[in-house]
Amino acid sequence: MRTAAPRTWFITGASRGLGRAFAEAALAAGDRVAAAARTGSALDELAAAHPGRVLPLVLDVTDRAAVVTAVDAAVAHFGTLDIVVNNAGTLSMGMIEEFTEAEAREQMEVNFFGALWVSQAVLPHLRRQGSGHIVQVSSIGGLAGFPLSGMYAASKFALEGMSEALAREAADFGVRVSILQPGGYWTELYSAMRNTTPIAAYAPLRAQLEAQWAEGSVDSAPSLAAEALLTLVGSDNPPLRLLLGDMVYDLAFDLARAKMDDWSAWEKTSRAAEHAVAAPDPA
Description:
The protein is an alpha/beta fold. The chain has helices at 17-28, 44-49, 64-78, 101-129, 150-170, 203-213, 222-233, 246-265, 267-272, and strands at residues 8-11, 32-37, 54-58, 83-86, 92-93, 133-137, 176-182, 194-195, 241-244. Helices cover 47% and strands 14% of the residues.
């Protein structure tokens, strides 16, 4: 049990999976949690088990005005805000060509815009107090796009690009930003995922992927990710990115090396594509 003053957390998607594990770990550490989820009933048990230290918030993170209201309510209730975890997310599976406009936008609305709205809503409070830590929950999908999860990867790539810029913008105010890149954990992400309507031309590729996945998945307990998160936010020098898991750690390095190999192989073409010249005559 920590003996320091309790910190106040704001966690989205806190009713289940990683979000629930994060909330339980924060509470076990003696902290306080504003726990946000789409359905308040899912948070009743958590609030009852920790009287006075949990503020349940019914929140759809795609509703920007509702996000601002929820963040303001958390600050008014606890008086401060120390750690913000943008965990809420969904998974839509399908080949890129198969996505309807509505399906593509829905994936981005939760995974990217939801985190953006929360980040915007908390920043005035964090800037004012001159401290705070925003943690963006990305994914292995933030490292690379794979067949069937390309739109999910797009949402996580967008999240990571935004968060890199945010980290540099917020640093002067004493606000830190970190990106979590988890591998596989036993959560409801896959059981709640949505699927596109298949296009017959992709049937062979789908069959190939299903054969690869036939042996099933051996994932980890969300509590391990929560332990890593506590270590991250307790650090005096937290990283911009933190990989979670053996597989995602090794994959990240393999992908980085492959990119560097491509860049090196095409160095001559790359360098030849730029040669500084004077500005064109406007006339």
